[in-house]
Amino acid sequence: MLRILAYCLCVLMYATSTATIAGLVYEYRTPKGVTIFTDVKLTPPFQLIRKLSMDPENTRHRSSYREYVKKKQQQYDHIIRDKATKYSLPPELVHAIIEAESAYMPDAVSSAGAVGMMQLMPATAQRFGITNLTDAAENIEGGTRYMRYLLDLHDSNLELAIASYNAGEEAVKRYNNSVPPYPETQQYVNRVMNYFERNL
Questions:
Q1: Burial level of 130, CB count in 10 A (0-12/13-18/19+)?
Q2: What are the tens digits of pLDDT across the range 31-56?
Q3: 38 DSSP 8-state letter
Q4: pTM assigned to the model
Q5: 65-199, what's its fold?
């Protein structure tokens, strides 16, 4: 279940009082053909496609990435807390997955076909009864329900659940219930865990 357009948009603060500098965002292609965006330079086997200057808000003035994330966390917190409570998940974990998956973009679509804030594949969405993938509440419903399933599947092992969310349940089983040795998945697990710990 190769999936994910993981947006990690980074925009720098004002360089001076009279000028702004946009942060560089790097677009890479993974060995599996998945496109990812990150503010960090990656090494092979990741293939650099292009460098971008991005403002997540598309406003006249650029704000820091952390300010952007904080604003989005506040915007969607009521939905996230509702769904997290429903499926007995820490809301901070759901926030972390959403930030790593889509940077809170409801209409994000990956080259593999994953859609929405929690980047659900159509088959996964169908499995959990989700019909409108770009609706934030529905997408988060599906993503949190799936994450609850994965935690139960892996006896509450958070790293394995996160790895399964990224690479698929079968990939984790294939490597004897361990994080698969895919650079993309290993970096994804680290990123989500870092965001989760930061959110606590």
A1: buried
A2: 666 666 666 677 777 788 877 655 54
A3: E
A4: 0.73
A5: Lysozyme (1.10.530)
